[in-house]
Amino acid sequence: MLAVFDMDGTLLNGDSTALWLWARVKRSPLRLLATLMVAPVAGPMVALPFTRRAGASILLWIATAGLSEQQLLASCDAFAQAFVEKRCKLAWKAQALAALDGHVEAGDRVVVVTAAPTCLANALLRTLDRRVDVLGTSLKPGFGGWIANIHCRNQRKCQALAEAGHGARWAYAYTDSLDDLPILRAADKPVIVKGGKAAERRLFRAGLLNGRAAAW
């Protein structure tokens, strides 16, 4: 069986990309100034589905301008090390890891599919030492920095899973957001990791009569 997990907000208690980018930006007065200047425009763009990729690319470029591919990967590894040493406001959710471990122990194949950059997701998930596959947003060089190439969100997550050979249906899907409605609808047992009646109503309104809400 295949179990599909989102990462930020589902396995993790926060936004890994935002924290990684902020860690890079705040070390450089020039990057910090540039970020503060574009934030009134890029921030709202990130909040809207149709402009999210462009807005994220602006912030990503500012944080990564001048980095080679090797330096980009090293930056992700350094952030993962800071995460392990609890030097950033990010942590794994205990209930999420229990669910993931349950699938691994049952012999299920586990795939983490995330809007975070693949290089960052790989660095973070390596710290878990679990048998999982990772699919995320690909980056490409642009104008001396790095920008989003294929943004792995919404329907694109299903496409990424299909292209990786996982088909169009899976047994389980776990996410904290209805932006991931496509992967929830393709699951036999969809789970939204927000407990309470409000989450149950959201599942019902989305037509996920076989879904459940988990208080993670």
Automatic annotation (TrEMBL):
Q: Which UniProt keywords apply?
A: Hydrolase, Magnesium, Metal-binding
Gene Ontology molecular function, alphabetical: hydrolase activity; metal ion binding
Spell out the Pfam families in the cross-references. Answer: HAD
Query: Which InterPro entries does the annotation name?
Result: HAD-like_SerB, HAD-like_sf, HAD_sf
Q: Where is the signal peptide?
A: none
Q: Which domain of life is it from?
A: Bacteria
Know the name of this protein? Answer: Phosphoserine phosphatase
Source organism of this protein record: Caulobacter segnis (strain ATCC 21756 / DSM 7131 / JCM 7823 / NBRC 15250 / LMG 17158 / TK0059)
